[in-house]
Amino acid sequence: MNGEKTVLICENSMEGIFTAVYDGWLDGTGNHEVEVRTCMPDNLELFCTYRAIETDQVKAGKVMRTILMKLGTEIYEYICYAAVSLHPDRGTAIYRVLRKALGHGRCNTRVMEALADPDVCLVAKLRTKVWHEFHRYLGFVRFYEVGGGVLFSRIRPENDILAMLGPHFSNRFPNENWMIYDEGRETVLLHPKRGECSLRSGVTLSEEYRETLSNTEEYEELWRCFCKSITIQERTNGMLQQQFLPLKFRKNMTEFT
After folding, report:
1. How far apart are CA 151 and CA 142, in angstroms?
2. CA distance 70 to 200
3. How far is CA 255 from the centre of its chain?
4. pLDDT digits (tens, 9 = 90+) for 57-85
5. N or C: which end of the chain has fewer CB within 10 A?
6. Of 88-92, 143-147, 237-241, which range is least confident?
């Protein structure tokens, strides 16, 4: 029946969104409207079907490979950055952009140039926003030793960029045991020495462990002294510093704690 609408409710993750794209592809034909959401809306609509989508790594992998092979690495990057953002409409926008690029046998590698299209425009804006936060964290992550030769870092990103940090820090510290903890999402990125990164969800730090992490170590104090020693007070520009290093990043940076 024309005019039908299906809302796919998926896991709040990149893999969850890609699984929903895979499962909803056949539904998006003719006048059948499809939306992809990461949570059930507060107000349910009449004449609308709601389907729960279980994350499937195989299906998500197929969608990823299709984007890469048919649309190229640039559009793949746009889609992936948008997928880890917090915007509630990102799943629907991603689905619709992919339909416009690949639907009905098309292979439109210039789909992201159509910025007058609201879905393309949203994906482009989300990509830019997430890209900026991701690249800031490449320089703002601070590690410190927590015992046993393990390096630990805490971050609180707005977007779900934790997994994206893995390749960079694996290349920087391939011979170290380290972990980066996303406080807001209670997720940790683990890297064993000379091994591969892995994600663990639902990780809560105990009070005892939090106290251990809060103890000031010798090397942390040395780093603070170094930062203070190279500061030229006469050239201090607080507004410019805040522009390049917003306050929200400083909570877990050694030189500001």
Report:
1. 9
2. 32
3. 26
4. 999 999 999 999 999 999 999 999 999 99
5. N
6. 237-241
List the strands of the sheet with 5-9, edge to edge.
33-37, 5-9, 48-52
The pLDDT of residue 11: 95
Q: How many CA atoms lie within 13 A of 97 on its CB side?
A: 32
Compute the distance between CA of residue 20 and CA of residue 70 in angstroms, rounded to an integer. 19
- Alpha helix positions (H), the chain: 14-24, 57-71, 73-83, 90-102, 118-140, 166-172, 207-214, 218-229, 238-244
Rounded to an integer, what distance in angstroms lies between the CA atom of residue 190 and that of residue 178? 6
- Which residues on neighbouring strands pair with residue 152, listed in sequence order? 144, 179
CA-CA distance, 131 to 119, in Å (whole number)? 18
State the burial class of residue 42 (Cβ atoms within 10 Å of its Cβ: 0-12, 13-18, 19+).
exposed
Among 69-78, 191-200, 206-215, 231-240, the range with the most confident prediction by mean pLDDT is 69-78
Which single residue is written with the structure tokens 């039908």? 4
Q: Between vectors from CA 140 to CA 162 and to CA 252, what angle results, nearest 5°?
A: 85
Burial class of residue 14 in the structure, from the number of CB atoms within 10 Å of its CB (0-12 exposed, 13-18 middle, 19+ buried):
buried
C-alpha distances in angstroms, 149 versus 51, 177, 190, 193?
47, 7, 14, 10
Classify 2 as helix, strand or coil.
Answer: coil
Q: Whole-angstrom distance between the N-terminal and C-terminal Cα of the chain?
A: 61
Is pTM, for the whole model, over 0.70?
A: yes
pLDDT-derived band at 1, boundaries 50, 70, 90: very low
